[in-house]
Amino acid sequence: xxxxxxxxxVTGIGxxxxxxxxxxxxxxxxxxxxxxxxxxxxxRFADLPVRIAAPAAVDPGDVxxxxxxxxxxxxxxxxxxxxxxxxxxAGYTAKAGEDxxxxxxxxxxxxxxxxxxxxxxxxxxxxxxxxxARRVSPHTVPMLMPNSPSANVGLEVNAQAGVHTPVxxxxxxxxxxxxxxxxxxxxxxxxxxxxxxxxxxxxxxxxAFASMMAMSKNNDEPEKAxxxxxxxxxxxxLGEGAGVIVLESAEHxxxxxxxxxxxxxxxxxxxxxxxxxxxxxxxRGIAAALQSLLESSDLKPSEVVHLNAHATSTPQGDLAExxxxxxxxxxxxxxxAVSATKSMTGHLLGGAxxxxxxxxxxxxxxxxxxxxxxxxxxxxxxxxDIVRDEPRKLPEGTIAAINNSFGFGGHxxxxxxxxx
Length: 420
Prior knowledge:
Layout: E1 8-16, H1 23-32, E2 38-39, E3 52-53, H2 66-69, H3 74-89, E4 107-112, H4 118-131, H5 140-144, H6 148-157, E5 162-164, H7 172-185, E6 191-198, H8 203-211, E7 241-249, H9 250-255, E8 262-271, H10 284-296, E9 304-308, H11 315-329, E10 337-339, H12 342-345, H13 352-366, E11 368-369, E12 385-386, E13 392-393, E14 400-407, E15 411-418
Parallel strand pairs: 4-5, 4-6, 9-10, 9-14, 10-12
Antiparallel strand pairs: 1-7, 1-8, 2-3, 6-7, 8-15, 11-13, 14-15
Helix pairs in contact: 3-6, 7-13, 10-11
């Protein structure tokens, strides 16, 4: 098929997060301003400086059959649950090729993870040390591969146009969605299942992030630990879960009479080239990604009324993001309702972009911006309109929203969506 520039729309959403086992309960939790952060009761965390995290509200083992769980890392389990919901929500009742609604060679899957099957890797190493090589699971390699979630989602829906796994740390989930948009626009696929997943709540990643001084140590008040934009913020809280959307060309969606949530206008990409873990303090790279998005789409700053910010709750990162927004949007930033949903879900790393895209889709669809919680004293350097404590209605008419995701290594991904 020749290269095209087709309109891309969202027709299905799915999620399993610290707030709920599906997209509806997650959205309800976001609007309610409910925190999913908890104390880690497992004795393996007892001596760590950080003993809080935001685990999935519904254990995947309670949803998936036990034999299947034994063959999937937790990250792939979460991805499969979210993908199944998104696929059904888009109106598909069978895998590609079985009901005539989509040909397998016109369907793709792009599911990202920032770390991959880290729990499998670490747990099976413990098995090797304690019980010997013969007791290591034969499923270990397919389980620990970073592409395992995408591969298993691809198998689930029979995707044959391409199955991909972008890895760009905490920008991975958003980059997966941007890649999926390009697959459709260039004619490689008509439909793509895309998003991100992560399941890294394990003593080693927690200890490692804590050693970097990246995580909040507010162990005594877990629900208040994730506090983007607050003057006393002291780092992110690790979360787990998955967010997946179904993207289609507008023509394909119309032919089958699909419900359309919104249009995806495109993505802006850049790299900081500053530091492997620290954000570039002026927001230069973020601004470049946003500027690239504006130049490569018909999005006008005046259309943007909502932003789901990356806002992890780190002192440097939160401020750099706001500086970049002000630099590019100027006075138009004043009419953007900014939500930092990590205040409730924690930081899902490679799953963040997927879950927060689901939240952005729903914010546009319901014309409601979810709140940011735990801001007791707003940092005076945060020069933006932050939605605090209560949801806020968004305007009528044609409106647009932006979802930001940034990752260690200086990866910057900016996604734009618009009502239809």
